[in-house]
Specification:
Blueprint: E1 3-6, E2 9-16, E3 21-25, H1 39-43, E4 47-51, H2 70-83, E5 89-93, H3 98-107, E6 112-117, H4 125-141, H5 143-154, H6 163-179, H7 182-192, H8 198-203, E7 208-215, H9 223-235, E8 240-248, H10 252-255, H11 257-272
Parallel strand pairs: 3-4, 3-5, 5-6, 6-7, 7-8
Antiparallel strand pairs: 1-2, 2-4
Helix pairs in contact: 2-3, 4-5, 4-7, 5-6
């Protein structure tokens, strides 16, 4: 399991496939597992780079003095790409991995060939309330209960309260147990709850795909999410919006992996042309 030591902190990464480098940054509890259902298909065409920022997953989880912040995580990605000698990559971030990808793109523009992201570039009151709820439920009832909630939030409407959501919830609970602890979850939520990268979105000049599922509580059909997407497109008018039918907002790669992969392939192949 390859890691990079940065002043005593181990940062985990993994590379599969070859070709155009594609960096995947998933949400707070799923992390690299967010891409479990699309990684193999992507690695057949691209050099897929999975990684975990410090404080989460397979990277070191120590939080010295609670000093981590979003820029620390952004710079962790820079450390990984330097280690791999990657000059230019496509970044794909979703859920709470989106602000990391957005901030990295604005800060290290020369490194980013293109960006794929979900429109979570700032945390509004609803996101902050949800993050606080995540912490309380996990501390009180554990990973299984949290996974029931997050799968209900993340899944597309047709998959809610049926066997499909149950399958996803069980898979999520197993991922959560591996990827964070109570202390790291609380600190992670503290950081993402204060995000506002509006000015960073305006700096993005590379080809950009705003990718999200159509339905569910994180989907384009919800007014708050739709407004965030529209604001993103106003700030970055060169970006294009792609909606995945039958997919939840940030869960489209989980629920509709084949359709989502095709959207990514179409976007990246267009860069070649």
């Amino acid at each position: 399991m390859p890691t990079i030591n940065d002043k005593g902190t181990e940062i985990w990464y993994e590379v599969t496939g070859s070709g155009q480098p594609l960096v995947l940054t998933g949400g707070f509890g799923l992390l690299h597992n967010q891409w479990d259902f699309v990684r193999e298909s992507l690695a057949a065409r691209y050099q897929v780079i999975d990684w975990n920022y410090r404080g989460a997953g397979r990277s070191d989880r120590a939080w010295p003095g609670g000093s981590f912040n979003q820029d620390t995580w952004v710079d962790d990605l820079e450390i990984v790409l330097n280690e791999l000698n990657v000059d230019s990559a496509v970044l794909w971030g979703t859920s709470t991995g989106s602000p990391i990808s957005i901030r990295y793109t604005a800060k290290y523009q020369h490194r980013v060939r293109a960006l794929v992201t979900y429109p979570m570039f700032k945390a509004d009151a609803s996101f902050r309330n949800a993050f606080e709820g995540f912490r309380f439920i996990d501390e009180t009832f554990g990973y299984d209960a949290l996974a029931c909630l997050t799968s209900w939030i993340g899944c597309a409407e047709p998959n809610v309260f049926n066997a499909r959501q149950g399958e996803i919830a069980k898979w999520e609970a197993a991922c959560f147990a591996q990827n964070f602890s109570l202390s790291t979850l609380a600190e992670t939520m503290r950081i993402v709850a204060t995000n506002d990268f509006t000015t960073d979105v305006a700096k993005i000049k590379c080809p950009t795909l705003l990718l999200m599922g159509e339905s569910g509580h994180l989907g384009y059909g919800e007014e708050g999410n739709r407004n965030l997407a529209k604001e993103f497109l106003t700030l970055a008018p060169h970006a294009t919006l792609k909606l995945i039918a039958k997919g939840g907002g940030a869960y489209c790669m989980i629920e509709e992996p084949e359709t989502t992969v095709l959207a990514i392939i179409e976007f990246i192949d267009a860069l070649q042309r």
